[in-house]
């Protein structure tokens, strides 16, 4: 394989990993914008609809610490693919939610996938890079989150979580 092809494959891998994590991070807060509309659509109270946001954050917070173990046990690539698939499935189901209870349940599914994406992506990027380049790769990973927000600033954020 040519050197340029290896660089292209690594770059594509890094971009894919970063985009998956960006979606999970975005979903932790983008739903806040939709709360008033969801209250109207689901005919529910603010006390109840806030669980749509809270349950995602709770799920991510509870499961993130176990993600490293799961990645070590089953392989980072497999776990990342599973997590991204689960997150995407949860996103699709959220788009089809028929009431606030189903939305909360589907946000748990999203949270399970989202909880694994961040630590697994960091481990994958860490293992893809040479020891002397790891600091740079982690810096790029962090900067990518900020740049994604800047580039998408004029986009309708509420639709970003829809697969």
TrEMBL record:
SUPFAM superfamilies: MFS general substrate transporter (SSF103473). GO terms for cellular component: plasma membrane. Coiled coil: none annotated. It is a multi-pass membrane protein. The chain crosses the membrane at residues 7-26, 49-70, 79-98, 104-126, 138-159. It holds the Pfam family MFS_1. This is Arabinose efflux permease-like protein. PANTHER family: MAJOR FACILITATOR SUPERFAMILY MULTIDRUG TRANSPORTER MFSC (PTHR42718:SF9). One of its GO terms (molecular function) is transmembrane transporter activity. It is found in: Cell membrane. Keywords: Membrane, Transmembrane, Transmembrane helix, Transport. Residues 13-163 form the Major facilitator superfamily (MFS) profile domain. InterPro entries: MFS, MFS_dom, MFS_trans_sf.
């Amino acid at each position: 394989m040519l050197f340029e092809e290896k660089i292209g494959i690594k770059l594509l891998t890094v971009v894919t990993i970063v985009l998956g994590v960006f979606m999970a991070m975005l979903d932790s807060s983008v739903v806040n914008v939709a709360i008033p509309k969801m209250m109207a659509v689901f005919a529910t109270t603010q006390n109840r609809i806030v669980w749509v946001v809270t349950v995602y954050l709770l799920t991510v917070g509870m499961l993130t610490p176990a993600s490293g173990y799961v990645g070590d046990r089953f392989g980072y690539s497999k776990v990342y693919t599973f997590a991204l698939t689960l997150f995407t499935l949860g996103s699709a189901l959220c788009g089809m939610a028929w009431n606030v209870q189903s939305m909360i349940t589907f946000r748990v599914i999203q949270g399970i996938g989202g909880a694994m994406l961040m630590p697994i992506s960091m481990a994958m990027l860490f293992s893809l890079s040479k020891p002397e380049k790891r600091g740079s790769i982690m810096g790029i990973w962090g900067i990518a989150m900020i740049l994604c927000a800047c580039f998408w600033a004029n986009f309708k954020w509420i639709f970003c979580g829809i697969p």
